[in-house]
Amino acid sequence: MGALATADFYRRLVQRTPAGSDQAHLPVLVWADPAVPDRTAALLGEGPSPVPALAEGARWLQRAGVSCIAVPCNTAHAYVEQLSGATGAGVLDMIRAALETAARRVHGLERVGVLATRGTRLTGLYERAGARLGLDVVQVPASVQEEYVDAAIRAVMGGADPTGPERWIATAAESLQGQGDQAVVAACTEIPLVSGAAARVLPLVDSTDALAEAAVARLWRPTSGVRTGERIG
User: Which element (helix H / strand E) includes 87?
Assistant: First the structure.
């Protein structure tokens, strides 16, 4: 949804596709509209709903022949049910993909921390998905959220020097480590862009990576080494 996050997702999708040539890559259509209302502001009651704009984008992709949609924004997943209901669009589940990736990577994982927007925290998206997978999902304290996580997300969105945001996200990861978490999910697609230091604190799952891997798993035929012919948007 964010400009950098969208570009980062496409780069990761290409990197994770086992194509032997340019022509073998997955056909992808990108709908990127910076005018989509802020998802967190809407969830906090401080702005308009993004659903009409998201539905417009989904319909545009459907008319172009897209068979499934990847939304590289964790917070926007609060609206996926409404989006699917309005358009019938099939949307890849980024939240479940990230938690399943964490469970695969960390043996015996029971407790996982999440670094996310205030909107994602409010919705309980990760907590509900974690409960279905038998995982205890933990958020950072509110003070850490405001001082470090929110500040880092704003800085990345604003194109600031990444040095400060990377340090802040590492501090937030240290807070989760102190709470007994075994891993951390970068659950906002701006956070992976400044998560290098945090990954040295705890095993870190990049939700953007997890979504890209889910897309490849859906659209690629690993046994034959050829794509399915479906399009992703």
Answer: helix 80-87
Summarised one tens digit per residue, pLDDT across range 1-16 is: 678 889 999 999 999 9
- Active-site residue flag, 68: no
User: pTM of the full predicted structure?
Assistant: 0.90
* CATH no. for 3-93+213-219: 3.40.50.1860
The domain spans of the chain are 3-93+213-219, 94-207
Using CA atoms in the order 2, 77, 75, 40, what is the torsion angle rounded to 10 degrees? 100
Marked catalytic residue, from 43, 51, 70, 73: 73
For residues 106-145, one letter each, b for 16 or more C-beta atoms within 10 angstroms of the residue's C-beta and e for the rest, the string is beebebbbbbbbbbbbebebbbebbeeeebebbbbeeebb
From 58, 69, 185, 188, active-site residue: 188
Q: What end-to-end distance do the CA atoms of the chain give, in Å?
A: 12
CATH topology of domain 94-207: Rossmann fold (3.40.50)
